[in-house]
Amino acid sequence: MKTVELKVTGMHCVHCEANVANLLEKVEGVEKAVADRTHDRVLVRLTNDDLDVNRLIHAVESDPDKGFKAEEVKE
Questions:
Q1: pTM for this prediction
Q2: Which DSSP letter does residue 62 get?
Q3: Bridge pairing between strands 3-9 and 69-72
Q4: I need a surface site. Which of 32, 37, 40, 61 has the fewest CB within 10 A?
């Protein structure tokens, strides 16, 4: 099982964290997402190792009114 780390800006409260996690967990192939607004990070545990990270980024940025921006954190 693979884990992906995203940098997500625009999270200002616990509701934002929950919103981002929920958006990601709706993507097929995502088992769990845990958001941390204090570090602008989200850890995403995948059930599908072949999942394209761009699908995760698109899910986070899917509602422009929320103002979330995402990018993959490369190790």
A1: 0.93
A2: S
A3: antiparallel
A4: 32
